[in-house]
Amino acid sequence: MRRIAIINQKGGVGKTTTTVNLGAALARRGRRVCLIDLDPQAHATTHLGLEPDGQLPSLYHVLLGQKSLAAVRRPVSDNLWLVPADIDLAAAEVELAGVVGREVILREAVQQDATPFDYLIMDCGPSLGVLTLNALASADEVLIPLQPHFLALHGLSKLLETTALVARRIHPPLRVSGIVVCLYDATTRLAQEVVADLQAFLERSRHQAVPWNQARLFATRIRRNVKLAECPSFGQTIFSYAPRSPGAADYAALAEEIDTGSVSP
Amino acid sequence: MRRIAIINQKGGVGKTTTTVNLGAALARRGRRVCLIDLDPQAHATTHLGLEPDGQLPSLYHVLLGQKSLAAVRRPVSDNLWLVPADIDLAAAEVELAGVVGREVILREAVQQDATPFDYLIMDCGPSLGVLTLNALASADEVLIPLQPHFLALHGLSKLLETTALVARRIHPPLRVSGIVVCLYDATTRLAQEVVADLQAFLERSRHQAVPWNQARLFATRIRRNVKLAECPSFGQTIFSYAPRSPGAADYAALAEEIDTGSVSP
Ligand SMILES: Nc1ncnc2c1ncn2[C@@H]1O[C@H](COP(=O)(O)OP(=O)(O)OP(=O)(O)O)[C@@H](O)[C@H]1O
Ligand SMILES: Nc1ncnc2c1ncn2[C@@H]1O[C@H](COP(=O)(O)OP(=O)(O)OP(=O)(O)O)[C@@H](O)[C@H]1O
Ligand SMILES: [Mg+2]
Ligand SMILES: [Mg+2]
Question: I need a surface site. Which of A234, B125, B180, B198 has the fewest CB within 10 A?
Fold first, then answer.
């Protein structure tokens, strides 16, 4: 099972949109995919048509040791399952503050989960707090969605260092597998310049003894496409809502690239 | 002095862009403006050309009682000052966890600050943690930047409830003054539908005994304009970088609307 944490502490860069639509695209390729919503704002949960109203059996109950992952997991569509978040997850950050091994509770739950999946994909909110640390400690791969704006590279270094720290202290198998450019405005020079800066940054890292010297920039870029912003309001993924849109094409290409290692031209 | 907290727990909706450019626009109108960066990611600080490298005298030192606001405040341009954030602010959330009155430390510092300003504008990160609570407890007005996407309204209710709670328990003068639509894509039906939903929501609230029944939707909408995304990379506000751009026109109009209560046509 490939365990992927979708991480970026910068807000609004496409983490949730990527979790939901990449997950759906992999499911359409016949992979069994389990999504986990680790954001107290529960956007992946809402995106898939559930109501996080405080009544939902959720990841919160798993982190507090009250339920197993299997007990709160729900089928979404063929090959696609979701472990939802709910608003009480906001309290978890505080409630877990004093607990021993608070960053590895999710990892334990995943290890105890007997259900076979091909992919586990974890959506994190815009922070590097205990919920995000749980994702990092449970993952073998980190996928970083990144909006090609100025502050993107600034935040990236900090994020990579945090990943390295978790890898060293808590979970050695962890590695940054890749960065995916999201919200890509091909027409703007800004996007092209930031992507060029990003490629140069990754190139320099190749020759350094840093844990992300194998990180790749995915060839697939997710272009800005209003259909991707519309489908959450119908509780759907892009593949049900607008299967012929550029958004659907881009996430299908990303899934192929992640699944096989390359994209058909 | 008008004390405005720029708040939205949703990531990437234009909080920092609004803090910096609204602040600059008010300064250009001759108002004395002090910006405070309350986000450990320090984007407002970086936007204005400073380097949050752990060496900056910053808001962190104020929250820990080591320095006054005046001691860390820096002039940015005419009429515009900044109290910067720095990376060590991330530790504040944890370090303040046990401290009595941890949500009102900034308010005390503001009250002890003898320097006369017309506006205090506080930029918050995408969370409702102790740093954001400090902003709410120090503010008399809350300004909510909002991207007209589906999840905007979802998050708004939660945000308004939090504001009401702070007002009731910690800081009674607090009120939501307004919501400003940011990243507005006038060409998309999605943006128009969400704005219509927002207007309906605010209209319904008028007749309820809720603390936000006076909240207004600003007439000024900040349109999506790549110039606004480019200027941080030069450490500039939109008014130095691209003074004739739609981004500059929109923030100048917002400043007029906030300063005078209405916009000249
Ligand atoms: N490629 C795209 N084209 C158009 N809209 C997009 C695209 N990707 C994401 N969006 C929209 O942009 C907004 C931010 O995206 P999203 O919520 O996925 O980011 P996020 O990183 O998960 O944010 P947060 O930090 O708040 O968790 C959402 O309203 C989403 O619908
Ligand atoms: N009107 C606009 N037109 C084009 N780009 C914009 C506009 N407003 C903001 N941006 C860009 O969008 C990105 C997100 O904006 P910004 O950082 O201001 O949001 P934020 O709410 O402060 O995010 P966070 O939740 O991470 O603090 C930034 O790269 C910014 O430069
Ligand atoms: Mg998200
Ligand atoms: Mg910001």
Answer: A234
